[in-house]
């Protein structure tokens, strides 16, 4: 089955092919063109298509819509942008100036009738109607970061953030606009996927608003004979098992996980190195001669086999795997060197020439393997740099201790008050945010924390210099949720770690990673709150909480009812309103793997309005706390 990411990539490639279907057999030269995009368009293309692939598609130049651009005659220009007033104003300016001869306009989400008419009037005024070849609504208003993960925004993501949705003075019109933006993007996701989902959501929060609006939008489109975007899916009939389940959840369902310290490679890169759009920027290794540190951008995508295999692995395993890769590379390099020496390539003798003829096959294979070897070396060096930067942070902030303690808190294995106070008061343990994250998780997960104890902790945090505004908001949040009644306090059961003996492969001399003082923690496989809900809803497990969830089917004319005979869903899309994170994503990936057996396939795609690491989430909580 084609992934959402691949379908979006195909749609963009077809757009770059001037909206002609893209055939793999075509060997002819691509037609040359210019790509003009806005920031949203750039964010969508950046994790999907590399510069090399753009060149192969015939894109000779790609430029920002709002930059100074020179006239380029006779070359087709592909515009890829949102239909905002600002963008349309700039396109009208381009018409006036006549800077291009052939326009192909592609809008990321549909352009309204009124704006289209305005654009038409502008083209008549500028006398360039004949130059506009095509105008397309593309329905690709989301960012595919992985085959099984998407977000709605990267730049300007504050507009859809947890803070934007939960701030105290939000007007109904503002809330409505946020919900409509989320629904428009989710609608794009399903147009691109080519399927109509069955929707489940809890009652009484932002997730319910999104679910109801999306149901209405899908329903209107399905029963609109002229503009039905799902005609292929409709013909396939109403078979329940062919359709995905869309589970829309509110970030408030689990506030501890976004603040949790983590132990897997991708989530650590996000938490410590601000992984964004599949790229991290790290400081280059120590600069020479007192020069300023250089920054190096590292692309982490599906073409990188090491990343694909290890992004969900615990960090110690990643360090060991890098070490193994390095040793393999060194032995391959030795083989090439031996071949050169044994053949006397180092000295130009007649003997060498004679040997060369005998060893042609060996040389050919060595030469052919050289590009792969060099690429392997580049990837090993890149992952060594990233892992070293992560390791330095783990050591400097004692993050293994924080991670271990939080896992214990979430699994409620023992009384942790003393170690908690000790770590908050220890000036060498973590930075101020680490301490605050640890305590908020403890506060959320503890059923009975007396006012005296709370004050004791608040005093210790204040003395350490922590900003307590996020805690002010979390206290208010906890009093509002069911957690106060203890209904959801067993959410995190089964978490925990065990410490394995020291790092066997990394203690050898010559290892790039000096792991001294870092614990080799193995995480127990457990389901986070979001994963538990997904498990219940995909398998139709009955519980009081799950029976409270809406069941919406846009294909049914009247209000949908739960079917009597229910076979489990194979495909689910889990969408979190108010921000997601890589910890939840990884937990769902692990769950899907564990549930997939020979006869039972589980495919889960994780989506969120935005992607936040703990630092960004704390900042939003701080703003909310300030308002109280």
UniProtKB/TrEMBL annotation:
InterPro entries named in the record: Sec-1-like_dom1, Sec-1-like_dom3a, Sec1-like, Sec1-like_dom2, Sec1-like_sf
Compartments, record wording: Cytoplasm; Membrane
Secretion signal, residue range per the UniProt entry: none
Protein role: Non-vital for development.
A Pfam family of this chain: Sec1
A single GO cellular-component term on record: cytoplasm
PANTHER family recorded: VESICLE PROTEIN SORTING-ASSOCIATED
UniProt-recorded name of the protein: Protein sly1 homolog
UniProt keywords, alphabetically: Cytoplasm, Membrane
Record organism: Dendroctonus ponderosae
């Amino acid at each position: 089955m084609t992934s959402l990411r691949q379908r979006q990539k195909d749609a963009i490639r077809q757009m770059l092919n001037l909206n002609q279907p893209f055939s793999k057999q075509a060997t002819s030269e691509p037609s040359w063109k210019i790509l003009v995009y806005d920031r949203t368009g750039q964010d969508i293309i950046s994790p999907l298509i590399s510069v090399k692939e753009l060149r192969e598609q015939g894109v000779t130049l790609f430029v920002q819509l709002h930059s100074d651009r020179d006239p380029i005659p006779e070359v087709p220009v592909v515009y890829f942008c949102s239909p905002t007033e600002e963008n349309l104003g700039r396109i009208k300016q381009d018409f006036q100036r006549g800077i291009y001869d052939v326009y192909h306009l592609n809008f990321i989400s549909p352009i309204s009738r009124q704006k289209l008419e305005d654009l038409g009037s502008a083209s008549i005024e500028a006398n360039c109607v004949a130059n506009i070849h095509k105008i397309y609504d593309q329905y690709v208003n989301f960012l595919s970061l992985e085959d099984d993960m998407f977000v709605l925004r990267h730049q300007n993501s504050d507009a859809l953030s947890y803070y934007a949705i939960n701030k105290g003075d939000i007007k109904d019109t503002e809330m409505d606009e946020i919900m409509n933006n989320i629904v428009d993007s989710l609608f794009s996701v399903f147009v691109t996927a080519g399927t109509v989902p069955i929707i489940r959501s809890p009652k009484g929060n932002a997730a319910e608003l999104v679910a109801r609006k999306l149901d209405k939008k899908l329903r209107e489109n399905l029963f609109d004979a002229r503009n039905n975007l799902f005609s292929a899916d409709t013909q396939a009939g109403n078979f329940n098992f062919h359709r995905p389940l869309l589970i829309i959840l509110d970030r408030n369902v689990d506030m501890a996980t976004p603040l949790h310290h983590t132990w897997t490679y991708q989530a650590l890169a996000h938490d410590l190195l601000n992984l964004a759009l599949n790229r991290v920027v790290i400081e280059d290794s120590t600069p020479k001669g007192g020069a300023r540190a250089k920054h190096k951008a590292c692309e982490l995508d599906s073409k990188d086999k090491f990343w694909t295999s290890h992004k969900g692995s615990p960090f110690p395993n990643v360090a060991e795997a890098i070490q193994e890769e390095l040793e393999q590379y060194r032995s391959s390099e030795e083989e090439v060197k031996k071949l050169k020496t044994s053949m006397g390539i180092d000295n130009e003798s007649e003997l060498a020439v004679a040997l060369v003829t005998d060893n042609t096959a060996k040389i050919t294979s060595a030469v052919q393997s050289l590009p792969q070897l060099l690429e392997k070396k580049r990837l090993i060096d890149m992952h060594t740099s990233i892992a070293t930067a992560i390791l330095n942070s783990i050591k400097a902030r004692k993050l293994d201790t924080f991670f271990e303690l939080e896992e214990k808190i979430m699994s409620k294995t023992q009384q942790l008050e003393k170690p908690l106070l000790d770590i908050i008061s220890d000036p060498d343990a973590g930075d101020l945010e680490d301490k605050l994250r640890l305590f908020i998780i403890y506060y959320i997960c503890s059923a009975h924390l007396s006012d005296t104890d709370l004050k004791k902790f608040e005093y210790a945090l204040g003395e350490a210099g922590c900003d307590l505004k996020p805690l002010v908001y979390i206290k208010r949040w906890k009093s509002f949720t069911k957690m106060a009644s203890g209904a959801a306090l067993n959410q995190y059961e089964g978490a925990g770690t065990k410490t394995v003996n020291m790092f066997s492969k990394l203690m050898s001399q010559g290892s790039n990673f000096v792991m001294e003082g870092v614990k080799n923690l193995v995480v127990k496989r457990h389901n986070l709150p979001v994963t538990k809900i997904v498990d219940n809803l995909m398998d139709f497990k009955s519980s009081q909480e799950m029976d409270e969830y809406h069941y919406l089917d846009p294909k049914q004319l009247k209000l949908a009812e739960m079917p009597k005979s229910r076979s489990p869903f194979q495909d689910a899309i889990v969408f979190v309103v108010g921000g997601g994170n890589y910890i939840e994503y990884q937990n769902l990936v692990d769950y899907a793997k564990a549930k997939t057996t020979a006869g039972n396939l589980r495919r889960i795609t994780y989506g969120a309005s935005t992607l936040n690491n703990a630092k960004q989430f704390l900042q939003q909580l701080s703003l909310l706390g300030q308002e109280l």
